[in-house]
Each structure stands twice: as C-alpha cells, then as structure tokens.
Amino acid sequence: MKCWLNSVEVIKKDPARTNGIIHLVFLGPGDSFGERALLSNTDVRSASVVISSAPTELVFINRVVFTELLKESHDSSNSNTLEITKRFRSNKDIVRNIFMRSSAQRSEKDLKFAVEYLKSVKFFSRFSFEVRKQLCKVMRLISAVTNTVLFAEGQVGRHFYIIFTGCVDVSVRAKNRFEETKESVVSRLGEGEYFGELALSQADGVRRATVVCTEFCELLILGRDEYEPLIQKYQNEYHAQYAQMLRKNPYFIGSEWDDNTIEGMCSVMTEKYIPYKGEVCKQGSRASELFIVTRGECRIIHDGKNPITNARQTYDLGRYGPNSVLGCAE
C-alpha cells in the first residue's frame, strides 16, 4: 500500500510493555508498506500492526496483481526485477524493524536485508558477507535525544556505534596557549559513520573523546564481547596505518606528539571522500577541522585583489598530495 494523505502509524505488540505495544515509525504521504508479506509465500502479516493516526487515503495493490507485475518484469527484463528487489532491501524502515527485534527473532531473510545496509557503511564494506551476517545477528538499535552524551572522555569503553539516523559531535579536551583546558569539537559524524572502536581494542580502554548527539539519533551498537572476535583484528590494522602515517609526517614530530597523543588522534579521525573538484573547505569559513590527504591531490586557491588594479583575482597557492596537512583546528 502507499499512503496518499495524512499518516499511518506502525506498531508492534509486546506483552512486556505496560501498554502492550511498541511504536516503530510514522509513515506519511508517499511512503509504502506491506510489500514483505506479498514477497513471501505466506498470507500472514507477522512483523507489525499498521493503524491510521488520522483520516487517511491509501492506494493499494493486491497479491495477484503484485505477483503478475513482478512476473512480467522478470520476463521482460531481469534488471528491472533486481531494481525492485534492491529497493525493497534498502528500505530503512524494514532494516530498523529488524534491528529492533531480539537476535533469536531475526530470520535468514531478515539478515540479508540487514547485510545490505551494513554493506553501504564504509567501515564494513571490507568485510565478507559472513562477517557482516554475524554482526547483524548481534547488533541492536538504540535511540537518543538531542544533547545526549553517549560517552565522555576518560570513561571505560563498552560499545561500538554506527549512526543509523542523526548526527553527533566528537570533542576532546586540550589546553590552549594560556594553559586553559578547553573542549573543542574535532569532528561531526552523520548517518552511516561510526565511532567508539578504539577503546574496545584495548583491555581496559578508555574513551579518548566525548560524543554528544546534536539531534535525535538512532544508533546500532555492538558490545565489547561481540566486537573483539569479529572486528578488532581489522580495526587494529587500520589504526596502525593511521598511526604510521602520522608518525611519518613532519607536522607531528616533536615531544608533544607522544604515542598517547597519536593514538588519541587516531580514535577521532574519520575518512571522507571528496569527489573531483569537490570543496574541502571554503575561504572565510570557520577553521574547525584539520585534514590530512591520504590519496589524490588538493589544489588551494585564494580569492583576493590585484595589488595594482584592485580588481578581484584568484591566486593558485599550490597543489598538495598524500600526507599533506591542510587547515587548522582552533
């Protein structure tokens, strides 16, 4: 079915709750639901209950017509069928519902949906299907409101996080030129990005940064017991690469750049892909991030004035390749 006007609410029965239900999601105009039952071999809807939260108009398609459309699509073009299937698999509401269930309630079909989501997260793209499948069995979904402190610098780390929806700020404490301890935001992470892994790679690892939700967030979390056997080996390799890169950079050589400081930087560093001719930072904007080029090349330009004619002029200040440091965190 497809919602045409107003909205509907998706709920799930849970006898353990006081009111007996769990509110899963609100669907608005243009959203669709009910396709999973039509794709299965059973007529029973077991995932959730859908109720109208206001007078609502819906357009719908029955099982017979739906099956015929898929059959015709398959007969005419296999690629069209793959596109339809891919659209269903990538539906965020379905993935959300899967991770809200207990591990024992997640079927093989559910895990395939979830694996497709993890495949889109850069950190997990390097893992095999089986590793991602094992992760989908044990990860769970939590939510946090704006300004929630997920963990603070100095606390013992117990979970690894992937942002399902929302955005968080990563901040660290440091002394300024006046020897005053200030907390500065060093990174802002959004949907599909991850954090919290460094503390889990050590026996009694402590958090090297504070993470705060800047808006309502949904997060996939993985406990230390599940993290260590599945991910630690891969993550240690990546942190070793980051640390090696920093130690070879002249910018980070000196007594103030000890192993703890380098490891702390590795814990908050995130990879960002900038497309060709994409803008890394803009002249006149607030300097809040430091960039290290790992692959490719960046060109720095400056908009100024010709000293003779006073006309606007763009100056090419140079090109910078791998291991170059750009920007300055304030």
Automatic annotation (TrEMBL):
InterPro entries from the UniProt entry: cNMP-bd_dom (IPR000595), cNMP-bd_dom_sf (IPR018490), RmlC-like_jellyroll (IPR014710)
Cyclic nucleotide-binding domain mapped to chain residues: 7-87, 123-248, 253-330
SUPFAM superfamilies per the UniProt record, alphabetical: cAMP-binding domain-like
PANTHER family according to UniProt: CYCLIC NUCLEOTIDE-BINDING DOMAIN CONTAINING PROTEIN (PTHR23011:SF28)
This protein's name: Cyclic nucleotide-binding domain-containing protein
Organism listed in the record: Phytophthora palmivora
